[in-house]
Design goal:
- The structure holds 2 protein chains of 2 kinds.
- By secondary structure, chain A is an alpha+beta fold.
- Chain A has 2 domains: 7-63, no CATH class; 75-156, 3-Layer(aba) Sandwich (Glutaredoxin), CATH 3.40.30.
- Helices cover 44% and strands 11% of the residues of chain A.
- Chain A has 7 helices and 4 strands; from the N terminus they run H-H-H-H-E-H-H-E-E-E-H.
- Chain A is elongated and about 50 Å long.
- Chain A starts with 6 loop residues before the first helix and ends with a helix.
- Chain B has 20 helices and 20 strands.
- In chain B, 35% of the residues lie in helices and 15% in strands.
- The chains are: A alpha+beta, B alpha/beta.
């Protein structure tokens, strides 16, 4: 899938950071906020405007787990698999979600770009374990059945 | 001023402004091992081979520790030996160990240090990966599985050449050196200068080897194989055969090439004289007719590629002269056009980017390139060894007629400032011996990355800049664009120090590079023709083969790529 990029939006981001190459992480974060991932075509554009090589930007983008080079779904579901959530059975929730969406460890996002399912190491909400987040919203004390309900609700929203 | 000392293995060593104790230790005559330290690159401190122990038993990486008066370090303690062996074993644990079939065999730093530290077995299980080759470039090939992550190539590409085609990607155990999105290197801004391959301690980046195909041509009875030898080759090859670094061994190279089976052997310096005359003509023409300034030299193919990719608007500043290699190749093809055998044109070059230049569409006629094979100095060394020629004992021979004369001006093309000096010799009105000698002291000589001079011509001052290393070139261009600097003539060589330091040459240190430059100036001093216009071969060419064809055979227009 080729993302159509509005370079004016990228210019606005660059403007905000005064075209400073040292702000590359913030620039990538804002770009990712816009597209939910870092589209490939952005790299040469940023390279030219910031005067740093595409290889260098790729280096930064691949160093941090938080940057994605693959398109993400509209709903990014992060299941906590930290110690507390793990012992309170987070894996069956993950398995249920993956099964009902046809996803796996290597395929995180549905083809219709609606859902992305990932694990995270700790969300810092161990008292609510097992916990998951959809975009920024936290869902506490989850079970596989509750996860199925949640999916149905999210699908209904569209 | 009182002198400051530190103790290295109980030897007092004077601190004379060294940036790190590694330089001091090496000054003291101790060959401390490193993978990731080169004085011309920034300090990375990754390989930890250069660790030393201080008197309190603390361990420091010598490359990234500044010297202090009174400091005491030991470079060879049981603990340090244990550490170094461990590092080597860990590096070898996920490294391909098929040394005999590796392009870098015998020149590999990992192999060398493993031998030096007596690594007879590796205690860890072998987790080396299948080789993962990128052969997209005509100049270099990359094999990620042989990478030890020292980052030398990354820093060379970015800091010295300002290209940045490769960088580290990913993190932890997944870390690797990669182009953006792991694109084939040929699709990046790589200019093919090969400096990454020159500095790579292992076989992870190597210069493409075209010797196998060339051997086939040489044994084909139906072809006539003609070869030209670039100026820098003659001073870069001797050391590999036990002769002093930088010694001019042109005669031996010629003899060796004949033994290998080349039919006609020529010197690219002859064509460099053509370049001097054409380029000077172009420069004076622009002066008289008011053309675009500065005029920038066009001999270096990596620089041409760099300009095309980064400053296409400068292409009109670049001289339309073909590089000496291409000028000679066109002249040779014209000369042999009625030959009853198929003529194969070979060039022995200190340069990896020439392999790309030879394949450019500008330098082909009906799909046939003017230069069929470009072989680097290192590949020639391999061919000489393969042929069993004892280079140090071979009798020197002279190049063939009718192109057998060269000038000193043509020979010095191989070192930074050489092209400029040759041009100055041509344009200067005073042709006396003392005036000629004085040119050498105008600031054109020396291995510095940026040199400036100005020459008087018909009552005006012509401002000249000489840069080597693409980062230096880029800085100069930026200054010009900002209006902070103004020049009439700029010589650009992509490799720091010029062609003698090309990536096709055997690797050498700063001292060796200086000796190679000096070797070319020696050759110039011994040459009885000093100026290009005095070369009788060139004059004969203008009166004969080149008549009415100078533009067709000697010039080229690089166009902006869409």
């Amino acid at each position: 899938m080729q993302e159509i990029i509005d370079f004016k939006e990228i210019d606005a981001i660059l403007e905000r950071y005064r075209y400073e190459s040292s702000s590359i992480i913030a620039i990538l974060q804002d770009t990712q906020a816009k597209y939910r991932y870092l589209p490939k075509d952005v790299f040469p554009y940023l390279s030219e405007k910031l005067g740093i090589s595409t290889a260098k930007i790729y280096s930064v983008a691949t160093f941090y787990e938080n940057f994605s080079l693959e398109p993400k779904g509209k709903y990014i579901i992060k299941i906590c698999d930290g110690t507390a959530c793990h012992v309170r059975k987070s894996i069956p929730i993950l398995e249920r979600l993956r099964k009902s969406l046809g996803l796996s460890e290597s395929k995180e996002t549905t083809d219709d770009l609606m859902f992305t399912v990932q694990t995270v190491s700790c969300l810092g909400a161990c008292g609510l374990a097992p916990v998951l987040t959809v975009n920024e919203k936290v869902y506490a004390a989850m079970t596989p059945d509750k996860a199925t309900e949640l999916l149905a609700k999210l699908k209904e929203e569209n | 001023m009182s002198m400051e000392f530190m103790l290295i293995d109980n030897m007092p060593v004077e601190i004379a402004g060294e940036a790190n104790i590694l330089s001091l230790i090496r000054k003291a005559g101790i060959d401390l091992p490193t993978f990731c330290y080169y004085s011309e690159l920034s300090v990375y401190g990754a390989c930890r081979m250069c660790v030393v122990e201080d008197k309190w038993g603390e361990i420091h990486a010598a490359c990234s520790t500044p010297p202090k008066a009174g400091m005491e370090v030991r470079t060879n303690t049981p603990r340090l030996r244990k550490y170094r062996k461990m590092i080597l074993e860990l590096l070898l644990s996920n490294h391909c160990r098929d040394c005999t079939t590796c392009e870098k065999n015998g020149k590999c730093k990992l192999q060398e240090l493993a031998q030096r530290f007596g690594i007879k077995q590796v205690r860890f299980s072998n987790t080396s990966e299948e080789s993962d080759m990128d052969t997209s470039s005509l100049c270099i090939s990359r094999d990620k599985s042989k990478c030890i992550l020292c980052g030398d190539c990354v820093r060379m590409c970015e800091e010295v050449q300002n290209v940045g085609a490769i960088d580290f990607a990913f993190r932890g155990s997944k870390m690797c050196v990669s182009t953006a999105f792991d694109e084939p290197i040929a699709n990046t801004k790589c200019v093919g200068c090969g400096q990454c391959a020159a500095i790579c301690p292992t076989g992870a980046i190597v210069v493409k080897n075209d010797t196998a195909r060339l051997w086939k041509e040489l044994s084909n009875k139906d072809t006539k194989v003609v070869v030209q030898i670039a100026p820098a080759v003659r001073v870069g090859i001797g050391k590999e055969f036990g002769l002093p670094e930088g010694e001019n061994v042109m005669g031996r190279v010629v003899a060796a090439l004949r033994r290998i089976g080349f039919d006609e052997v020529f010197d690219t310096s002859t064509a460099a004289d053509l370049t001097v005359l054409e380029e000077t003509g172009e420069f004076l023409g622009r002066l008289q007719k008011g053309g675009v300034f500065p005029l920038i030299t066009s001999c270096c193919p990596a620089w041409i590629r760099y300009a095309e990719l980064n400053y296409p608007e400068l292409l009109e500043n670049i001289s339309t002269c073909r590089s000496p290699m291409q000028m000679f190749a066109s002249v040779l093809k014209e000369h042999y056009k009625h030959s009853n055998r198929k003529v194969v044109s070979v060039a022995i070059m200190p340069c990896t980017a020439k392999k790309h230049e030879a394949a450019r569409e500008e330098f082909q006629e009906n799909g046939i390139p003017y230069v069929d094979y470009v072989i680097t100095t290192q590949e020639l060394i391999q061919m000489i060894r393969e042929a069993g020629i004892v280079f140090s004992e071979i009798e020197p021979e002279a190049v063939d007629m009718p192109f057998g004369a060269t000038s000193g001006a043509g020979v010095i093309f191989g070192v930074t400032g050489g092209v400029t000096e040759a041009v100055i010799r041509r344009v200067s009105d005073d042709k006396s011996v003392s005036a000629l000698r004085a040119i050498a002291f105008t600031g054109v000589r020396g291995m510095q990355g940026v040199k400036e001079t100005s020459i008087a011509y018909e009552g005006r001052q012509i401002k000249v800049a000489i840069v080597s290393g693409l980062k230096n070139a880029d800085d100069l261009i930026r200054k010009m664009k900002k209006g902070e600097a103004h020049y009439d003539f700029i010589e650009v060589m992509a490799c720091p120090g010029g062609c003698v330091c090309g990536a096709g040459q055997p690797f050498t240190n700063a001292e060796g590079k200086k000796l190679r430059g000096a070797g070319l100036y020696d050759a110039d001093r011994m040459s009885n023709i000093k100026r290009s216009e005095e070369n009788p071969v060139i004059m004969a060419l203008y009166g004969g083969l080149l008549k009415g064809k100078t533009h067709k055979l000697l010039h080229v227009h690089y166009h902006r790529k869409a």
